[in-house]
Structure formats: structure tokens, C-alpha cells
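Entry 14. Two folds queued back to back today. First construct below, sequence then C-alpha cells.
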Amino acid sequence: MRSPYFEKRSVFLICFALAVIAPAPGSLARQKAPAPVYQAPADSPAAGPVGLPGRMIADAAAYDGYITRVTATSPAFTTGSSVADALLASASYQPHALIRGAVAFGAVAALGSSDFVATLRSVGASYANRRLLVDYILSDPTYVFKFKGSDTAAGLAKEALGSAALRLLAAGKAIKQSAYSIQHQNWSRGEISDRSGRLAAVEAAETNGLPAAPDRVGAIARAASEAQPLALTALPSKPPYTPLVAQALQLAAIAAIGEANDSTYERLLALTQESNTDSCLHMAKLNLYQCLAVAKPHYEDVFCMGQHAMIDTGSCIARNTGLDLPVDPSPSPAAAPAVPPPHHRRG
């Protein structure tokens, strides 16, 4: 029979072993994994260069090319074919594409503010800060207004977009006026031979978005990288800004910290969509098509081009940049058209 001594000794050894193996009170809590915190990877990339994705450079160049090309249209038309060519050129934009180009072009102009760029690059010196900055900028359109130089950047964006829009508007007024003056020329009173085909061609002109301007890409790329800013001067502009200008600033801010590149292009596209300008441009296009649908002689096509393809388009961009449109003096009786414009009659 086992003696009580051995039983007590066995119980003691078992308890001692359990005491050694068992964790001390509270040690389980200390062994839990720490709460996750964001830490930049050891191989975090350095800040990229100032600039925009290649496709946005192309969009800005296309916008600049469109304005330059259309505002150079001479109102001294002498043939129906010259009218047809100018009409097609002025109508060759799709509203979404024109807005994409306008926002990108405004952002390129805003990058001409060295204080704005330097401040953002200083704040976004670390990888973690750049990640946070992009999120803040995309979620809050007013966030970039807090940075030094933002007022100068906004002034440059407004000047770039506004001055282009006013040039287009002024050129359209000259074209529209020529519709009255060329009525005295026999060729201008001739009826357009293929009216439905001409309308179909103008409607189809926007399907390609906005004609590319490869000759402007180099200059836009240099301006976006600060190597050679656009030749603009503008006074600083305080908020509030229109959505078109605010989005140009947002895009410029992300470009300044080196986070606007081909890998982020899809995410940045949201900044190039603006509903107010889009609605206005779509209405301009609708009015153009309706005008052309009833226009018969060549001089009426000139009227449609000047009013709806150019004046209306320029007015849309100018107003949505925050500019007041110039007020024309009251026309004299002699300036009235000899024949009502095509809107005012049917057939």
C-alpha cells in the first residue's frame, strides 16, 4: 500500500510542475498582437517628379490646340467649302473631352505657382503623407485652398481657362457678324447641296472626343514639370472658386507631390468631370444641330457656327470659370440681318 507520504509528495510535484508551465496572471493579454498601425514599407518610393499622366498632357494639349485652331478662323469666307471646313473644325469636340482638356490645362497653368508646388512637396515629403494628401485632396475640394500659393495657382488657372474662353467668344462674334455681311455675295446665298450629309458629318465630328494636338504636347509637358511654365500673368484669386477651377487646383496639387502619373490616371479622372459645364456644352451642341437642321444657304451655316459652335461654347467655359461675360453695345438698325437667322423660321 502506498504511504500517505508518497501521495502528498506526488501532489506537491504535480502542483509545482503546473506552476512552472502555466502562464503568470495577465501574461495572455501581453501576448496578443498589437493593434495594426500604418507603417510605410521599407522600400517606400521617393516622391515622383512634378507632372501629369501622359494622357492628361495630351488632353490639355488637345484643348489648347482646339482653342488656338478655332480662334484663328478668318471671318472672310469666300466659298461654301471654306464655310464647311470651318464649321467642322469648330464643332469637333465632345463635351466630356473638352472638359477633361480644360481641367488638365488649368492644372498645368496652376503649377506655375512655385509657392504652391514647394509647399505641397514639403508637406508630402514622406510616403505616408503623400498617401494621406491624395485621399484628403480627392475627398475635399476645398482642402487645397489651405496651402500657401493656392490663391496664385487659382489665379493662373482662371486666367488660362478664362482668357481662352473669351478669345473663342470674341472670334465667334466676328464669325456671326460675317454671316450678315456676306449675304451680299452671290455664293453665300446658294443652297447647301447636301444638308443632311453636312449635319451628319458635324454630329459625327464629336465621336472622336477632341482632335489631338501633337505639336502642343511638348510645351504642355514642359509646363507641367515646371521646366517652362506657361506664359501667363494673373493676380491671385481668393475662394470661393467654381468647380472647374477647384478641380484644376486639386489636380495640380496631386501633380505637385508627384502622385499624378499613369498608374493613378483612372483615379484622377473624377477630377475632370464637371456637371455644370457639361450641361452647358451639351445645350450648345443641341442648339447647333437644331440650327443646322433648318439652315439652307451658306451664310446661315456661318451664323450657326459663330453663335452656337463658338459663342455658346466660349460662354460656357467663361461662366464656369467664374468670369462675367462682356456686354455688347446695343446694335444699330443697320447692323440687323437682312434675313432672319435660321432659328426664326422653319423649313
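Second construct, same run, same settings:
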Amino acid sequence: MEVMRLDSGDAVDWRRGLFDIGMDSLMALELKNRLQASLGLAIPSTLAFTYPDIHAISGYLVQRIFPDAGPAMVASAQDAAIEHRVLAAAAQIEDLDEAEMESLLARKLESL
């Protein structure tokens, strides 16, 4: 979120390409540097080009962090990320009144 300069409330489709939602080459390098520093792993500068969405990057990182992990562990990590997003979305809409909910639904339908 910080690299993309998005508000924390902005919903990001984890399968949508990072460059499709506004990432540029400098942001890609910043993402690589942040991941490298926080994980202590050597991350290729081409990360966002080779793995162009959050889903692909998460799979790559799970395999790097857990090299002996099979496809089931990668899928499980991605499922956990989806569950986290669903719970966060539920918490955001829980406090909306009827008019706010209707407005949110209308915006989502327009974006389809």
C-alpha cells in the first residue's frame, strides 16, 4: 500500500497486475528493496515484472522462505491472504449505514 501510495482503505484486487493499478518501475524497485530488507532475502530487481500481481509475488515469496514447501503450502498461504482480506472487508462494512452500503455497492457494480 505504501509503495503504491494507496490509502489503506483502497481495495486492491490481488490478481490484478501491479502495473495495471499504477505501479511504475521506480515503485517496483522500492517494493523489491522493502521486501529484501524486511525478509533478509536477496530479491531480484525484476520481481514485479516476473511476478506481476500480489498473488504471484506471494507464491514466489512462500517458495523462497520455505524452499521445501510443496504446492499445498503455497496455496494455503494464498488462501490465508484471501481470508485476511475478507475479514478486513467485513470489518469495514460492519459499521456502514444503509445509505453508505448502497453507495458502496453501486460503486462496486459500476467498476465491473
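Quick look at the second one. The chain has a mean pLDDT of 76. Residues 25-111 form one domain.
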